[in-house]
Write a structure and sequence with these properties.
With about 375 residues, the chain is an all-alpha fold. It contains 17 helices and three strands. GO terms for molecular function: citrate synthase activity.
């Protein structure tokens, strides 16, 4: 049997949440480009309810999410200890997400409360690791605006808030990616929400899924700090069979629709924060990779520079990705729960056959004498 590696191209289930069919990303029927100027909470409502909210519903939803962006005292106390450990932030997030499942009401907590607390958890990890005090949400701000404020300690400008809303929207969901599918598998066992999110974080922690944006900026730093020629740098990586981070996608062969939107944001922020040197390098590499390899930038390529320009440290990029994607994870967990069907695929066995235990056991034990 000729099996596709990594289930590539295999349709394993149906979903009403998002689609990448035809190289286009849609959330519940709406093209991502049309949603990019919306607000994060409006898109979350769409992912969870398959429709846009009425004005009153949206305001109530926003207030509910912001009001829940506070951690229980037990979570905060333990987080102050755990987050200071010299581990990668994704390792801290993995443990801290599981911790939420022990310091909250697991049976009664619902997605709005869980999403709000995940955002606060991630912002708190960032602040603690930077030796800065944790910030409480501002009820006058939206969800994404508050998250950026709680990350940086500074109230965002209207323009920065709009940009960050767009970034969070673009990362909110992406069909059956590795971490989302992991969450659905766990949800199919009727496990609680926190277990599903912990599993999703574990999947995102792997460098072949999450972490790409972090490695993109490491590449940019190596080029800029060493005053290297970006094209020669890339050629050298290709010659040594090393991956050029931020390019190519299993689904998008003609370009990631999110990357085009993020490119504009990265360019604006780079000019504003005097990081043009990084953006110039990105443009040169992108042109070379398209001409020589036919590869387009993916969502991680420009996200890395956006996060840097907003004052975020490189090793925090993936936890912030997790914060954005939590809305999508929860949407898929809810959808999988409604199906009430255990995910249990079959495999093709390719190991040895027709072995005889007593015969082989006699031979091996005799040989040991």
């Amino acid at each position: 049997m000729d099996l596709p590696k990594g289930l590539a191209g295999v349709i394993v289930d149906e979903t009403e949440i998002s689609s990448t069919a035809g190289g286009k990303l849609i959330y519940s029927g709406y093209p991502i480009a049309e949603l990019a100027d919306s607000t994060y909470e409006e898109v979350v409502f769409l992912l969870w309810h398959s429709r846009l909210p009425m004005k009153a519903e949206l305001e109530a939803f926003r207030k509910e999410l912001v009001s829940e962006m506070v951690l229980p005292s037990e979570s905060t106390r333990l987080l102050l200890y755990v987050a200071k450990e010299p581990q990668h932030p994704m390792s801290i997030l993995r443990t801290a997400t599981s911790l939420l499942g022990t310091t909250n009401n697991v049976k009664q907590d619902e997605p709005p409360k869980i999403l709000a607390k995940m955002l606060t958890l991630i912002a708190s990890i960032v602040r603690i690791r930077q030796g800065e005090p944790m910030k409480e949400p501002d009820p006058k701000l939206g969800v994404a605006d508050n998250f950026l404020y709680m990350l940086t300690g500074k109230k965002p400008t209207l323009e920065h808030a709009k940009m960050f809303n767009t970034v969070m929207i673009l990362h909110a969901d992406h069909e059956f990616n590795a971490s989302t599918f992991t969450a659905r598998v766990v949800a199919s066992t009727s496990a609680d929400y926190y277990s599903c999110l912990t599993a999703a974080v574990c999947a995102l922690k792997g460098p072949l899924h999450g972490g790409a944006n972090e490695r993109v900026f490491r590449m940019l730093e190596e080029i800029v700090d060493n005053d290297a020629d970006p094209i020669e740098y890339v050629k050298d990586r290709i010659a040594n069979k090393l991956k050029v981070m931020g390019f190519g996608h299993r689904v998008y062969k003609n370009g990631d629709p999110r990357a085009a939107i993020l490119r504009d944001i990265a360019e604006k922020l780079a000019k504003e924060t005097h990081n043009e040197k990084y953006f110039d390098v990105q443009i040169k590499i992108a042109a070379f990779m398209l001409e020589e390899k036919g590869l387009h930038p993916n969502v991680d390529y420009y996200t890395a520079l956006v996060y840097h320009c907003l004052g975020l440290e490189r090793d925090l990029f993936t936890p912030i990705f997790a914060a954005c994607r939590t809305a999508g994870w929860l949407a898929h967990v809810m959808e999988q729960r409604r199906e009430s069907c255990l995910i249990r695929p079959s495999s093709e066995y390719v190991g040895p056959k027709a072995r005889e235990y007593y015969k082989d056991h006699y031979v091996t034990t005799k040989g040991d004498i």
